[in-house]
Amino acid sequence: MADSEGSVTTVGLTGYDYYVPETVVTGEEIAEASGIPEEVVVEKMGLVEKRVCPPDEDHATDMCLEAAEGAIAEADIEPTAIDLVLYHGSEFKDHIVWSAAANIADRLGATNAYATESYTLCAGAPVAFRQVTSQLRTGDIETALLVSASREEDLVDYANEDSSFMFNFGSGASAAVLEREPERDRARARVRGSDAITDGSFSEDVVMPAGGSVAPPSHETVDANAHTLDVPDPDGMKERLAEVSLDNYLAVAEGALESSGYETDDIDFVAVTHMKRSFHELLLDRLGVDPGTDGYYLDEYGHVQSVDQILALDEGHERGRVEPGDVVLFLAAGTGYTWAATVLEWLG
C-alpha cells in the first residue's frame, strides 16, 4: 500500500530468534535405524545431525515461546504492543483441533493481540511474511509476531523406506517481529515482494494415513502403524516432482524479485528449505549465487519445516555472509505442493 506521497509503506523485521532442543541425533544413528548407508544419509541427504524433542518436553508452543521471547527482546517491544500473533508451523502440535497461536499469545502476555494460524507446511515462512506484510501495509495492524515450530520427526518411521526423504526432519522453532514503519535504526531488514505457486496434483502424495476424518484413530489404525507419515507412491511422486520442482523454485524466486524491483543478479544470500545436497547446490547455482558463500546448508539441523529460513539467515549472518544492503531471498517448498519466496533487504 502506498502512502500519500506514493511510496510503498515500509514493513520492517525488527527482531528474530530461534530455538532448537538439546537432544541430537546423528546421521550415523539414522543410518543404523534405517539401514541406509551412512554415506548416503550424510552426503546425499545432507544430514550430519539434527535436533529432536524428548517425548515429554519441547512441545510446539514451548519452543515457540522460547523463540518469541528472544525476538521480542531484540525488537525491544513489550508483548502488549503486539497486535497479531500468527502461528505458521506444523499442524502436529501439542493437541489436535487446537489453537497453538492462542496459547502462545496468552503465555507471552500479548493481551492486545488476536491470534490465528496459517498452514502452508514447509513453505510457511515466505507465505506468512507475505500475508502479514500485506496486513501491515494496509494499516490493519502495526506490530505482528510470527511464530513457527516443528517436531514432525516424531511422525517419521525409519523402517519405512518409502518415506526416506523425510528422514531429515528435525525439531525447533522460530519467531520474527514485523512492524509497520519502524525507525530505520530499529529494523534489521525491510520486507519486500513475494510470490508463490501451488500444484495441487501432489496434495495426496505425503499423508499420515490415520487420525483424520477419513480414518479416525482406532485400535486397528494403531496396530497398522498408520499414524506415521507415508508416501503411497514414492517413485511416482519423485518422477513427477523432478519435472517441475526446479522450475517452480526459480519461478517464485524470479517473481518475488521482480515485485521487489530486483533481478536474480541482485541476490546476495538465499535462505532455503533443507533438501538433498546436490539439489541445494544446483538450485543456488541456477540462481547465480555461490552455495558456499551466499547461502547456508542446514546439514547440522536437518529440515525444520518453516523454521528453516530463520535458521539459515541467522547462520549466514553469524558467518558474515549477510551484510547491510544485501538482498536476502527466503525460498521454500512444502508438500501439497507449494513453492514460495519472499525478498528482504538486509539493513543490519
From TrEMBL:
It comes from the Archaea. Residues 121-200 form the Beta-ketoacyl-[acyl-carrier-protein] synthase III N-terminal domain. It comes from Halovenus aranensis. InterPro entries: ACP_syn_III_C, ACP_syn_III_N, Thiolase-like. One of its GO terms (biological process) is secondary metabolite biosynthetic process. NCBIfam families: PRK06840.1. Residues 257-346 form the Beta-ketoacyl-[acyl-carrier-protein] synthase III C-terminal domain. Keywords: Acyltransferase, Isoprene biosynthesis, Transferase. The keyword Lyase does not apply. This is 3-oxoacyl-[acyl-carrier-protein] synthase-3. One of its GO terms (molecular function) is 3-oxoacyl-[acyl-carrier-protein] synthase activity. Pfam families: ACP_syn_III (PF08545), ACP_syn_III_C (PF08541).
